[in-house]
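Subject: Interface between my chains keeps coming out wrong

I've been trying for a while to get a sensible model of this assembly. When I model each chain on its own everything looks fine, but I need the whole thing in one frame so I can look at the contacts. Pasting all components below, labels as-is. Any help appreciated, I'm running out of ideas.
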Amino acid sequence: MSGLLDLWTVVAVSGGAFFFLAGTVGLLRFPDVLTRLHALTKADNLGLGLVVLGLLPRAEGLQGAVKLLSVWLLVMLSGATVSQLIARVAGRESPPA
Amino acid sequence: MSTATLFGVYGAVLVGIGLYGMIVQTELLRRIVAFDVLGSGIFLIFGAVARRGAAGGLASDPIPQAMVITGLVVAFAATGVATALLLRLSASAEGVARRPEGPP
Amino acid sequence: MSEFLLTVAALVVVTVAIGLLRVLRGPGDADRIMAVQLLGTGGIAALLLAGSATGEAGRVDVALILALLAAFASIAFTKAPSG
Amino acid sequence: MTPASLLDLGIGAVALALAAFAGAARSSFAAIVGFVALGLLLALAWLRLGAPDVALTEVAIGGGLTGLLLIGAERRLRARAMAEASDPVSTRVRVAAAVLSAGVAAGLAAAVLSLPIPAPTLGPAALRELPRTGLDNPVTAALIAFRAFDTLAEKVVLLLALVGVWSLAPDREWGGRPGQRYPLDADGVLAFLVRLLVPVGVVFGGYILWVSAGAPGGAFQGGAILATMWLAARMAGLTDAPRLCASRVRWALAAGPLVFFAAGLAGPLVAGGFLAWPVGFEKPVIVAIEIPLMLSIAAVLGLLLAGPAQRDGAR
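Reply #2:
Try treating it as a single job with all components included. I did that and got this:
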């Protein structure tokens, strides 16, 4: 059982790290602000999400698990809002044609 | 090199970077930032000292930790006073610039 | 297992730090804020990973504060250029 | 190389790169971005150094509040569009500064490398006295019991700093409201987020104080979170700063230090010394002090962030 859970941790955490890598590559390589924003949100939501899900089996009891999940929830919530605001800044800097 | 020593050396380098910035920056806000970088370096050296003092099941000596917490708060207060002074300075400079033939 | 988690934590830190090249390149403030947002999320992930590996007390609390405050740092940045 | 040392090296290398960037960046906006990012890396470093209490403070105050303060100042300076350009420093001065800074850094590094072995520590002494405080977290015990005098003096320093900031207000604005009035967020995105997150933040600030008896946390960190929530509510235009001459502002600032000081003065009567806590009642006394203390810290930090009065003055 613990072997399976460990496998889950390894798979999910690796997946999360992959999305961070992908988000960074996108942030550096994509041609304009809005596509870069798209890449960033993948790292925010999926990268951290998979890390959190992977660490869940190692959480300290129910309270630890709830805290872990609320970290993810907070980041998703604020990430959604902040990307709106960033897009607004981008629109101010170079108004869409 | 242990974790403590490693971060202590990083702290020393941070102090150097901050000090250099404080001397060569011409914008005052940038000098404040450099001052805060310098402060972070000093706190990190404290952290190294605290970590070396780990004993009796503690991961780190609590007394230097308490001092760093106090220091972080005071550094914030100092930054607050510095930025307020800077903003007041620029406001009065602006006032002078608006009245070219103002009082001497 | 904890070696694996620590390695991933180091990888994530270095990865998102490379993303900070966007802060250098810009061109706009929007790009800079994005790089910080990415670093914030990556930092949270690294905190959770490293904390889970070594079992330090209170590490999830640090991540929670970070999740709460990183959002407001980004908001302050987005508010900044408008004056 | 072990993964742990790989992580340490990575954190350190990125931190130094960010510090150099904060110094070398072309715009001050980018420099501040670099500084805030540095704060995040330092929080990781503090965790690696086994100091989660400091990591919390670094996240909340070192990077967080200081970053907000600097960003606010940068925005106002930019709005004024004042080129405060003085002459760039000459190459000779740069070289001299580089030599001096490298020398100082090398000296400090040498000092770190030659620290005595075994390292002196107050850890065992703190652990020995810990049961007498009724607390389980030695860092909280150091702040509120062993070195309570430092903490009390620090509260006074914070108030003095605030007096310093306030006294920079123009005469006609004295006692007025600090900072600008933010318009209500038009599209409602920010207002929505703030309405959602501020209650979470308030609960979490209280939680951080409450657990500090046995786990990382404390009045500073909780107060910093509350102060950030107040700033967020103002930025979304949901609330405005109070007039600084209002008596509720003054009482909010003074309540924490006053309670602390009063409890300290009661010490000689009930426990045999200034700032000594009565035997058997240490924990309730400490909690009773820390709650008003946190609220006062939140008020001080929030008002330091807001700056001097600049509108709606008394005259």
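Reply #3:
Confirming on my end. The helical segments of chain C are 2-19, 21-25, 29-54, 59-79.
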